[in-house]
Amino acid sequence: MKRIMMSRYLLLLIFIAFCSCGGDTSSSLPQGVGGGGGGGTVATASITLTANPSSLTVLGTSSITATVLDSTGTNVPDGTVVTFTLNDSTLGTITPRATTYNGTVSATFTAANKPGTAIITGTSGSATDTVNIAIAAAATGSIEFVSATPQVIGIQGSGQTETSTVKFLVKDINGNPVVDGTPVSFTMRGPSGGRLPADGGEYIGAIDSTPTQASASTVNGYANVILHSGRVAGPVLITATVTGTTMSSSSTPISIGGGVPSATHFTVATDKFNLPGLAFANKQANISVYLADRFGNYNVLTGTSVSFYAEAGAIDRNDITDSNGSTSVVYRTQNPIPADVAPEAWETALQAYVLATYGISTTRHPRDGWATILVSLRGEEAFSDANGNGIYDVGESFIDTSQEAFIDNNDNGSRDDGSADPFEIYIDDNGNNSYDGANGVWDPDKTIFKDIKLLITGGPSYIELDPSSFDISNGGSQGFTILVSDVNLNPLSPGSKVTISVDEGKLSGVTSYTFPSVFMAGPVELSFSISDSSATDTDPPKPATIKITVTWEGVEYTRTLSGTID
């Protein structure tokens, strides 16, 4: 009995030892599966990939299924790891890692916005397989104009920006940017009519024999073309077409401007023509300058430097133009007053007239109160572009102007050296210490200048009536003329007012007058009449007084004339 019990104990030990050794020492755990568990396992033997769908359009997705079997042809244990890789990361993305369930695993491929063939590889242990996915571009859906930067450029040689980047966006039927490399063609219509760049024409793209055509390929959906200006100003329109389709879009007009101020597109203006500077300092006027190129474009002249000079008073020395080709500075009254110049024939006649009519004897005359403000800048002389090529050609007509600007003190339109009237200051551009007039050739870059004249006036030095007495009979009438002016026979400052009244009889004609803000040469004369208000009365003549009241700069000045009315 004891021997039987011992034998059974030995058999149990042998069985336990056999079980702990695993029995089959030649097998190993499956790849990617942890140890432990019960019975024996086998290694991964194969992996098979399928794609659904196997072809798609850009930005689409495909489901990748991997079937993983062991060496016995059965499903690997759940949790077996499968890795996925993509041959070209620019084509899209793939789920990098997943684990099996019932022998299969799924991953998602998402295509990028690029056509091509994506090759996906699945790996589990030493087993691998690949599957291909064809990626096609989505059909083009639209093309749209985006921008032209800048919208305004200068003609060749103007010193302004001469190129503009014109951008279009091409989208597919899903509203996404089309794939990179989509071809786009461009055509241009411009002011030079298609002239070659060598002949002064604007062009798009590269300098070649087709200045109005160019092409480009999209990047992130955008297709760009560069517009280069020529020597002719005007609007440019660029049309973009997706190659091989009928889809096209046009830009907004892009302006090519001259960028050089033209002597004939140059205006000087003021908000006040008459300032009471003979009596007051710091009475102000805004002097404005408006510039444009020879084509009438003003929006390409930003930053043009403009200089100012004043015969009398004072003014800002210089300023630069804004985006509208204009600038404005302040002129103020102060010493000196306008120069005393020799009278012209019309002024001599005026002096004789006021002496004969009103008894005014004076050596003063209107131009003694005129102040010249000179405005100058760099620009070009005007010319007639007969062949429309945007440049001056020998033989074309032009307006020749003086080479150097001057302050025209005596207002005669020409520069005087002081031998008769006062010496007139000039700008010695070439530094030769002498004044240079017109040179007889067209100048593309010179000092161009204009002036504007202001009236620098004083108070009502003259309030005179003609006739200087009156005696109106019963039922009769008498006409009068009144002269009002400052010491130089110029009108009074704007807003000054003349009022006429009479204490007997009937007054008609101009009974009040307000001086306007305009440039006027000579005094103001007003006409009115007085008549007997009762032609049938038998009363004796009555004394009557005409009263002239002039209000100037807040002060009243009066002149009376006494007579009789029957």
Model description:
With 566 residues, the protein is mainly beta. It has two helices and 37 strands. Strands 11, 13, 15, 17, 18 and 19 form a six-stranded mixed beta sheet that branches. A five-stranded mixed beta sheet has the order 2-9-8-4-6, with no helix packed on it. A five-stranded mixed beta sheet has the order 21-28-27-23-25, with no helix packed on it. A hairpin with a 5-residue loop joins strand 17 and strand 18. It starts with a helix and ends with a strand.
Offer a concise description of the structure.
The protein contains two helices and 37 strands. It is mainly β and 566 residues long.
Given helix and strand content, the structural type is mainly beta
The mean pLDDT is 89
State Rg. 49 Å
* Count of alpha/pi helices: 2
Helix content: under 10%
The number of distinct β-strands equals 37
Oligomeric state of this protein: single chain
The rough form would be described as: elongated
Strand content of the residues, in percent?
Answer: 35-45%
- Low-confidence regions: 1-40
Q: Main β-sheet: number of strands, strand sense, barrel status?
A: 6 strands, mixed
End-to-end CA span: 183 Å
List keywords for this structure.
566 residues, mainly beta, 6-stranded mixed beta sheet, 5-stranded mixed beta sheet, 37 strands, 42% strand, disordered N terminus
